[in-house]
Specification:
The protein is of the alpha+beta class and 339 residues long. The protein folds into 2 domains: 190 residues, Fructose-1,6-Bisphosphatase, Chain A, domain 1 (2-Layer Sandwich); 130 residues, 3-Layer(aba) Sandwich (D-Maltodextrin-Binding Protein, domain 2). Helix content is 31%, strand content 22%. The protein has an 8-stranded mixed β-sheet with strand order 4-3-5-6-7-8-9-10, sandwiched between helices. Helix 1 packs antiparallel against helix 2, helix 2 runs antiparallel to helix 3 and helix 6 packs across helix 9. The longest helix has 21 residues. The structure holds 6-O-phosphono-alpha-D-fructofuranose.
Length: 339
């Protein structure tokens, strides 16, 4: 890789793999298939207003949420990309009730599984708001040579070998980690190539942006209510009141907070007793990214990545972003519990 020009994601992957002599290129292949699928989804999303791919598909996903046509399109695009190369033995997706096993001799001998939210925030597509893909990659724990099993997907987030997201926004970016820092690549559509634009992203230790759906305030636990009021109080030395920014697209809110500092909160509440966001393919991958960038991700009490999953579409409360802000929110939750 020459220092004169920006590295492409392909060059970055080759260079990174060199640091792991024992690597056989499998993970590089998986990340390359994500890169390809992201370009295809990018192309279609950018034309969403022009082709009949907007709006409701008339079906519901396992969450009982209306599936947007783009949801299904993105899901199928990533599945095809994973199946077309032989390094992934199965996929769990927000859009599918059960995991998919690529049950053939080649894929049964593959060692990676992928969990994904193919198009998070998809209801925003038809109003032209940024959306994203979120992915999480593990090594299977079941024996090679046989079809992937549910246990391969129900691993705690601290076992992830890679994770990341694609944000389809004013530009399309692919941000991922393999456990050695977080790097962001911006798609240059004129040449169809992701170029390293954000090397070794570090989330600011503190920040002044909080992201929460304040319309749910009445449903929140007492400690969360107290924290939100704290964010809104006038206290100039501490930079409060903080700025409220909530896009309704987790990847977009998280990406902004990652770069500028901030906290994203999706607490439990009477509307969502276990929280809304899904542990396996939303919270864990973004927790891996955030921790690798120096931030923090918990459910208000424990590290997200230490939670042992019980089911594929398990929901959790989510507090993620600048470490000081997440710790501050937790302190309000814990003191309210005590009182
Ligand atoms: P609410 C989108 O459905 C999503 O999963 C996240 O992308 C987003 O942050 C959140 O839900 C929005 O949920 O309840 O505030 O509309």
């Amino acid at each position: 890789m020459t220092s004169q020009r920006t590295a492409t994601m392909g060059e970055f992957l080759v260079e990174t793999q060199k640091a792991f002599p024992q690597a056989n290129g499998g993970l590089t292949q998986v990340l390359s298939s994500i890169r390809l699928a992201a370009k295809v989804v990018h192309r279609t999303i950018n034309k969403a207003g022009l082709v009949d791919i907007l709006g409701d598909a008339g079906s519901e996903n396992v969450q009982g949420e209306h599936q947007m046509k783009m949801d299904i399109y993105a899901n199928d695009t990533f599945l095809k990309s994973f199946k077309s190369m032989g390094e992934v033995c199965g996929v769990g997706s927000e859009e599918l009730e059960d995991f998919i096993a690529f049950d053939d001799d080649i894929h049964n001998n593959s060692k990676y599984v992928v969990l994904m939210d193919p198009l998070d925030g998809s209801s925003n597509v038809d109003v032209n708001v940024s959306v994203g893909t979120i992915f999480s990659i593990y090594q299977r724990v079941s024996p090679l040579g046989k079809p992937v099993q549910l246990e391969d997907f129900l691993q705690p987030g601290n076992k992830q070998v890679a994770a990341g997201y694609v944000i389809y926004g004013s530009s399309t970016m692919l941000v991922f980690t393999t456990g050695n820092g977080v790097n962001g690549f911006t798609l240059d559509p004129s040449i169809g190539t992701f170029c390293l634009s954000h090397p070794l992203i570090q989330v600011p230790e503190n920040g002044s942006i909080y992201s929460v759906n304040e319309g749910n305030y009445v449903h929140f636990p007492e400690g969360v209510k107290r924290y939100i009021k704290y964010c809104q109080e006038l206290d100039e030395p501490s930079g409060r009141p903080y700025t409220s920014r909530y896009i309704g697209s987790l990847v977009s809110d998280l990406h902004r907070n990652l770069l500028k500092g901030g906290i994203y909160l999706y607490p439990t509440g009477t509307k969502s007793p276990k929280g809304k966001l899904r542990l396996l393919y939303e919270c864990n991958p973004l927790a891996f990214i955030t921790e690798q960038a120096g931030g923090r991700a918990t459910d208000g009490y424990q590290r997200i990545m230490d939670i042992k999953p019980e089911e594929l579409h398990q929901r959790v409360a989510y507090f993620v972003g600048s470490t000081a802000m997440v710790l501050e929110a937790e302190s309000f939750i814990h003191s309210a519990d005590r009182s």
